[in-house]
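We emphasize that the prediction below concerns an isolated chain of 548 residues; any contacts that depend on oligomerization or on bound cofactors are therefore not represented. The input was used exactly as deposited, without trimming of termini.
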Amino acid sequence: MLTQFHSTKAGILAGESRLHLEAIEDVACSADNETFTKREKEKFCKDTKKCENVKIKNYKTVNAQHVNINAVGGALNDGQDQAGYLSTKPVKKSTVRWSFKNLFVLGFSFMCVYTAFSSLQGLQSTVNHHNGIGVASLSCIYGATVVSCLASPWIIQKLTTKWTIVISFSLFLVYIATNFYPKDFMLIPASVLLGLLTGPLWSAQSTYTTTAAISYAQTIDILPEQAISKFNGIFNGIFQTCHIWGNIFSAMVLSNNDTIHVNTKHINENRTGKFCAAKDCGKFTLLEEDMYLHIAETPPESRYMLVSIFLCCAALGVICIIALLDRNSTTLTATKCSVSGTSSQDSFSATLKLLRDPRLQLLTPLLVFMGLEQAFIYSEFTKAYVNCPLGLHNVGFIMTCFGTVNALSCFLIGFLSRQIKRYCIMLSGAIFTAGLLIVLLLWVPSIDDIIMFYVVVSCLGICDAIWVTQTNTLFGVLFPDDQEAAFSNYRMFQAIGLATAFGYSYFLCVRTKVLIMCAVMVISLGLYTIVELRLRRRQKHMAEIIVL
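Result of the prediction step, given as a token string:
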């Protein structure tokens, strides 16, 4: 944000309710924002020293939880009109440009890094299948993420959002490089190390995106909820294309390997109905000696080529973040002006305190379900529904379809959310997901019905897009004053779901895993409905107070 205000709250009694207004007392000393020219910086700093005793003339409700200032009047000590120098067209254009520029840089960088990681993640259950070392490494990543989420606000306060992202991305390079020699003593330590900064990484991303969205909303005078939903849709639309590019690379490399085709021929012809899809029982299926035939060995040359490509993609993401992403002006201003009153220790405790918030408690099963669902896609679907009946060389093609549909759905849902209520979108997603889970229980994949594979994976992409975009928006609306703590908890509970699913992946049958997801989804939808009803009741109550 180019200009940012430190506000105090004045209570106004209306009936038995109390309305809090945000009053502008002073202008933050954010003149070091990179979008200011040198002359503007000097004038800005000079003027803000005189900015005292500003009075509110009118106000406008922005949303149920925040009452923002719509028009600010009053006289400055030197007689200047405050709105004249604080709200100008150049400043608005610059703010909008800043918001979108950083949003696209952030999305592109995450897309590059996760082009490598998500594709490698989808191949771990098949490429590094011996003793389940592949999924074990993923479980370690998300297990460590659970711990790191608690310290996310403290880490972000120390490093800033930008450098939290940079350092986290660097650890992705380390993890990817260990796949040149995927032994447990290499993969597991690298996985734990990566997990320890994955929580702060996503908290920093969510905080940065939400901050940019709120800045944009205040500049063009729209509801923050609309801007947050739009920005999340754009970010996730860019980010989710990582599934396209990464899986294209995988498909190109693996489809040229004749060994993979030979190894899968026997199982494709004779064992699909007996061992694949919902009947896949992981470790216990492999007790049958001839089942080893369907687990294709990846030649060293193919592995080295894939890992090298992934390393280059991740390195590009790191370079883009360092060179092009601006520091978060909100965090920077609060730190330099020393007026926020929030220490690193307070931020850490805020993450724990938020666990007592009833809204977060009600949303916890939904976040865990999202983790279970994503782990199922990357582990069980690729192994039991694609690799088993079709062969490893088809995993890349099928998952490319998933990434394409997922990315397009994120864009579409982000814009549709301005016309359709969030609860309607979430309810539609839940019904769609329930139907899809039933299909996964009953479907017997056949190599003669290749179109069905693309239909099912497309549905998975749509469902995932709904959950991701709408839950991010919901958290931005519910916890606008505790973004870092809220998104830390968001990622923590999602990581619990991921770690749990990857942890039992090697030991449970696919049918059992699908039933677990069904049960958790039903519970999470019911509790989410309570949160939405309470939020709407509060919005209606606040609107009545404003009218009075």
